[in-house]
## 1
Amino acid sequence: MIILITNHGLDGRAGTELYVRDLALGLKAAGHTPVCFAPVLGIVAEEIRAAGIEVTDTLDGLAAPDILHGHHHHTTALACLAFPQTPALFVCHGVLPWQEAPLAQFSNIRRYAAVSEACRRKLLDAGVPGDRIMLRLNGFDSGRFKRGEPAANDAGRKTRALLFSNIAQPADLLPFMKACGAQGLALDFAGRAGKVLGTPEDELPRYGLVFAKARAAIEAMASGCAVILADYGKIGPLVTTANFDALRQENFGIAAITDPPDEAALREAIAGIDWDDAARVSARVRAEAPFANTVADYLADYEAIGADGPADASRIGAEASAYLAAILPHLSERDALAGRLYHETKTRLDRDRELAALIVRAKSDPAAFNELLERARWLDPSNADLKG
């Protein structure tokens, strides 16, 4: 089969980008021909191309695929419009990003997949019939993440922790650093705002404890690490054999990460690590969550959605119109936010320039100094040093 996989981008090392890479590699290994489409290409696209898989930023000139595997509604819509007779599957990866909304409800989309129960609920709330939604849990590349010794067997690993996030900023580190320090662990930070882990399969086995979510959490568990769920500026529970099933159904994601990053709560979670239990969790992940299982499930989905033959292309005009009507409010909202950001940024820059000039004048002009002091009081009325 020729399977066209869509994504909003293949430029950065993030969740769906790496998911597409692993899916394409798995489909090729199974004897199929994946083709990857994203409007924005980059480092992940080059990785996929290096494996001999076609990657494109345009649908022009592509032969009609046998199956459309859609991620993100705008790129899925483009593919459905380009190939209206091709049966399609739409995958929801998140409950927050606007791109994950199932707005591309074209008739050739015959099944929907959700990577967690939260995503399944999102699809149901959007009006997708429950019998058309498949739960397709995330996994790890067992060829990339080799079996190694769990942290339970390595005293050195138990002294090293990692916060692994593409969302967190360096300023978010403080409660994690304090909690880890109180428990005798050194903390590193990896993600877009920290060290980029180009080969996490080599880096993760250095750590005993990893703070992460979703795919990163699964890869850390597969690497023998204890995992405390964290991201979105919040924290979740320590993953144990007791809560593993429930957390896996939520993809170790946002639905399970609900608490503020309180230092005391983090210290308690770290102190509660049972390293032998963490090793049992790792063994379960390695047994139950190889991504090859997910690829096999998708291949079964492709067979099922293709069994009814080509889709009815005569409805594509009406469906395109309905899609545009559904997406217009989102585009208007984004325009409004962009306009607000522009005006707020311009106001801040104008104020900063004004303050800079005032600071220069205040060196020799008492009136300018008093005006500067008044502005400082207005900006921080609680500062006792500015009173009087």
## 2
Amino acid sequence: MEKVVLAYSGGVDTTAALHWLKRVRGLKVVALALNLGQGGDFDEVAERAIEAGADSVHALDRRRTFVKQYCFKALKASARYEGAYYLSAALSRPLIATELVSMAREEGARLVAHGAPPKGNDQFRFECAVVALDPEIRTIAPMREWEMKSREEVLAYLKKHNLPLRGVSEATYSSDRNLWGVRSSAGELEDPNQPAPEHVYQITTDPHAGPDKPEEVEIRFLQGEPVALNGKKLEAVELVEELQRVAGRHGIGRFDTIEDRILGFKSREVYEAPAAHLLHFAHDELEKLTLDHEFIEIKPLLAQRYAALVYDSQWFTKLRESLDAFFRECQEYVTGTIRLSLYKGSIQVLGRHSEFSIYDREASTRHAKGGIPAESVAGYLDLRRLNQMTHAFKQRPKL
């Protein structure tokens, strides 16, 4: 029997895909389950794969790799797709694809498979990444091949074949969760004129129901990466997990948005990104203190392009790698601490400090001389007025 390595999440679609690959395609299935901080009992995911018919299961913890090599790169790049999406699912797909290819080589398989739907973005992210890493490996997408056309039909398939359903939600919307956030869409969320029901939110409290007192947090960064929380050094995964809890209980990081998908149509997406939103907010404030005007002006343009690359399945490209090199260089002095106050969904800056701050208090004060000689100001002003004067003689502004 030919062997296939399946990216297995333990959800409805991948459980049905596992059984379908064996029953319809006649393949030996190796289930690959990765712990990226999705919550729940990870051991149960592996058990569910065996119950669904997997010939073997590999359950790997890749939380640290995900945070350090993917999420923190996006943080340094200030990457946020269309102003609302911190790319939680999009960042995880190239990592999953990398592990799929690695496992396929280890198992001697020339096939890999995923459970992404035919209208979704993830099929592009998985398959473009796989072919970039190993063009000789072929990818099977069961949801593009089987005859089932709705979630209800997939659930019926699971029940018909007595496949494991415990812990599986029968909600009509789909959801993807990891350490960097939660993405929810489709089903009952498809009407953009209706608010997302509260039961959709998994890791954030309703801001109105949050604590009645603000909570202060202090985040320490070293060359653009968070390294400590409230004066205590923490490993990357531990720090993100703690921020997710802290920011989540204050309702930080909820986004309900209309998004442009890879296939060209729009979709309504509901995101929760408490840790990512808080870290990006603090990181932006630290950059304002440590980066000069030229960086502050150009970086948003490059950040937007970086986010588009990640979203559009272009992780394994020279452009993305080159942008990472640029962002890594510009973070050399983005070191310091930011103090924030969290309260009912909002974030307020309380303090900023960096040993590399280029904020000059003497130069910036408006009520005392010093910092910039008056004659230098007068000379600079003459040049600016000359420019305006030239335009005024030739192109008089309308009054």
## 3
Amino acid sequence: MRNRYAIALTILGTYFLASYFVLHAAIQQQRSMQRAISVSGQQRMYSQRISMFADAIFARPDSGLRHRAQQDLHASIRVFDEAHRALTLGDPIINPSGWPPPSVRDIYFKQPYEVDRQAHDYLSHARALDERARYQTISARDKDLAYLLDAGPGVFLQSLDAVVVAYNREQQDAAAKFELLQLGLLVLGLSTLAAIWFTILTPMAKEIAERTAAMERSASLDPLTNVLNRKAFAERAERLLKPAHNDASVGALLMIDIDRFKSINDTFGHGFGDQTIVRVAEIMRENTREHDLVARFGGDEFAIFVPGFDSDKAIRDFVERICTALGFESMHGIQTHRVSVSIGVARVECGVTDLRELLLAADKALYCAKRSGRARYAFAEESTIDDELNANAALSAAYGI
């Protein structure tokens, strides 16, 4: 059972660990894609800032704003270059390897966009303009300025828009795959649980139930004879005595004791004594019904509870049959020993619910049977005990006691 627990926990642990790494990778991919969208949008914005500050340098050659525009141009060139490198070469924030995705890579490095080439050309013109603006005035015929003002808001901007669109499409595709991945993990998880349930937990639960039932049976049975022990007998007999179980029928409680059992142990040994006890229990089971209660109270003392007889005669016939059946010969080597029992009987009628009183009455009748010669039975009603003993005289003679 421990191995099954270990297998089930190992499978579940492996599943949850694998699910964590798979989902972690998918989430990281989503974060990288979101970062790429943000950086590509930043790249688009700074490309426009470059052309705007270049125009400001030309338009205000003597203004105090020229120096500020020149600083902003230099900073915009740096930020644009960093964003472009991150998007084309990859970085730890976006993705350390395998970047950019194939659809975006085509836009960067293949026609008709070739954004990477355009970006390098754009940066080359911007740097040249930035360098000259430090020591001379920029004229309207400056070729670098003309390029920036033409390409920035035009073809280059359209190419950068295509990059943003491609990244958004990649994110949407990745989100759809992520949803499928979640669904797949859910199905796999449920399938794993179902497999564990049917192949491990269900057999384990069945085994636990069987072991529990076996323990309950063991706790309620006498280990030598496999009939009920005293405690289990009392619990079940009390349930049968409850008013809900009483009807117009009658029953009986029999207390049974093996005659001169001490002599059997002393003469033949305790092993033979145990064999005798086991055989007595077997005969009781053979001569009782399935719903009758048979118990060993301890030592050589037994009890039988038989409900549901329709008359006193039926009870008497049953008691006599049991008494006769429990008179048998047992062999010990070449020696033959005659076994007999004494039985005390207490009738159980409608309305009788006190098991203790019944046991005391049956025990009293058992004492009367033993006192009167053994190998016989006696009923608990004092007014009839003498009659019952006389009626059993033949049994005593048959046993030779």
